[in-house]
Design a protein that fits this description.
Distance between the termini: 29 Å
Strand content: 5-15%
Number of helices: 9
Largest sheet: 4 strands, parallel
Structural class: alpha/beta
Order of helices and strands: HEHEHHEEEEEHHHEHH
Number of strands: 8
């Protein structure tokens, strides 16, 4: 692990330990519902690697917590539902593929979180991003892992990661103002590099409305860690690297052009 990664892990662990201290004190007398930690950041920033390191550290001494890692990606709608949503809104480029709010199965996500909080045996969904030439699809239920099952220790801490986790919708006035500013910057040639100014307001508004429903997940987080990028446009290179790796492992995935189009819809 690089020094930068080590420093990032140490910083995150220090924050997490402070956040879980009041919760952890309850373990003396009983086992409260699991602590839910959210981690967000742009695609390719290293969420998966950091989450894995945090997971290992918290399960080891001196913490000895039983943890589970969930990704909001694993709650993407199944392929058929993705196609249906895209067909209903053919002019909205933001939902012609997975990624944005509205492309997840929130019912499934809330059901899994509720089951884990109640310490019931829980099947954990999984998503195959290489399916359908990179369009993706949910893995069949028989292949899902289980938590809190017979012979397993109950989960103490849930780590939920995702690029849009913890986001809150803007009110209509704020949204319109942000969009108008982006369009103005684009039209004035101010070295505009964003994507908002190239997207119709009604398409952005659709995503903003969908994001309101994600409050049901955000409101369950006990703590949230945000990973920031020095330049959000780095995500293009990071995401291309990820997809190359996926194609090498799975033999299928998005083309470079499809990856760029995918990222365009998330910036």
């Amino acid at each position: 692990m690089s020094k930068e990664s080590t420093d990032k892990l140490a910083l995150c662990l220090s924050f997490i330990v402070k956040q879980i201290k009041p919760w952890n004190s309850k373990l003396i007398d009983n086992r409260p519902s699991p602590f839910i930690l959210g981690i967000n950041g742009v695609q390719g920033i290293g969420k998966t690697s950091l989450v894995s390191a945090i997971d290992s550290a918290l399960e080891d001494a001196p913490y000895r917590l039983r943890t589970i890692v969930l990704s909001i990606d694993d709650f993407y709608s199944c392929h058929d539902d993705q196609l249906h949503l895209a067909a209903l809104h053919p002019k909205n480029p933001l939902i012609q593929h997975r990624g944005q709010p509205s492309t997840h199965d929130l019912g499934l996500a809330l059901s899994v979180l509720s089951s884990l909080q109640a310490r019931r045996e829980t099947k954990i969904p999984s998503y195959d991003k290489s399916a359908f030439k990179g369009q993706g699809d949910r893995v069949p239920q028989e292949a899902w892992a289980k938590a809190n099952g017979p012979g397993q220790l109950p989960i103490d801490l849930v780590i939920l990661e995702g690029w849009c986790l913890g986001f809150r919708a803007l009110d209509d006035g704020q949204l319109a103002a942000c969009w108008e500013e982006a369009v103005k910057a684009r039209d004035q040639g101010q070295n505009y590099r964003g994507r908002l100014g190239h997207t119709r307001l009604e398409d952005v508004r659709f995503i903003n409305e969908a994001l309101k429903r994600y409050d049901a997940i955000t409101n369950q987080l006990d703590a949230l860690i945000h990973l920031d990028a020095e330049d959000p446009l780095y995500v293009y290179d990071w995401r291309l690297e990820q997809e190359i790796g996926l194609r090498q492992v799975k033999g299928s995935g998005m083309t470079d052009a499809e990856v760029i189009n995918f990222v365009n819809g998330c910036l």
